[in-house]
Amino acid sequence: MGMIAVIDTETTWKDEVMSIGIVTADSDTFLPLEKRYYVLTPFKDHGGMYSAVLYAGDITPDLEGSRKSVMSDLTDFLRSREISDVFAYNAVFDFQHLPELREFIWYDIMKLAAYRQYNKKIPASADTFSTGRLKRGYGVESIYRLLSGNYSYNEVHNAVFDALDELEIMRMLGLEAVCYSAARIG
User: Fold this and answer.
1) At 119, which helix (H) or strand (E)?
2) Cis peptide before 42 (omega within 30 of 0)
């Protein structure tokens, strides 16, 4: 795969994208290479569950602007790095909210992280379906805690920080990028 990207979005109360975080990584190591953070106007002012952390840790957006300008910059960013593979946790959500990125191949990290056959840290005592998927407790925070052993971890809900955490989940799963072909969406 070469380079990949992990994307996360945060939305307003009216389900409009107010921020996008993206992290690029090498597909062999899953170590972060670059990150970009976008805040969309006027949506950032519409309020949402995670509006208070739009600027968490004094983060400065790489671009704060209209959806059109943000999506143009983000698409140019991915193309300039010859990235065709985009990953997200619960990727269907981000895929549906970012139709401008349909030219890319999307994969859902959750589709591997929540399954016993891919996530070796899921205990034998865990409540799973016959398919091996956890019945509950397979959100980012729960899976990150399970994989890292850090049970005090809390998801920030800032798009760029969350994209970094989702990439870290991929690294901790220890699966080769080719395994994610089972998690392709779109």
Assistant:
1) none
2) yes
What is this structure's pTM?
A: 0.96
CB 97 within 8 A of CB 9: yes
Q: Could you write out the DSSP letters of every residue in 2-61?
A: -EEEEEEEEE-TTS-EEEEEEEEEETTT--EEEEEEEEETTGGGS--TTGGGTTGGG---
Q: How far apart are CA 165 and CA 41, in angstroms?
A: 25
The one-letter amino acid at 4: I
Domains annotated for the chain, with CATH where assigned, are 3-185 (3.30.420.10)
Q: Which residues pair with 87 in a beta bridge?
A: 6, 107
Cα gap 17→12, rounded to integer Å:
6
Report whether 71 contacts 52 (CB < 8 A). Answer: no
What pLDDT digit, counting tens, does each position of 68-117 carry?
999 999 999 999 999 999 999 999 999 999 999 999 999 999 999 999 99
Query: What Å distances lie between residue 90 and 41, 72, 98, 122, CA to CA?
Result: 24, 23, 13, 18
Determine which helix (DSSP H) or strand (DSSP E) holds 86, and give its type and residue range.
strand 85-88
Residue 164's SS3 state is: helix
Q: Please compute, for residue 91, the number of CA atoms within 13 A of its CA located in the half-sphere on the CB side.
A: 26
Split at pLDDT 50, 70, 90, the class of 58 is confident
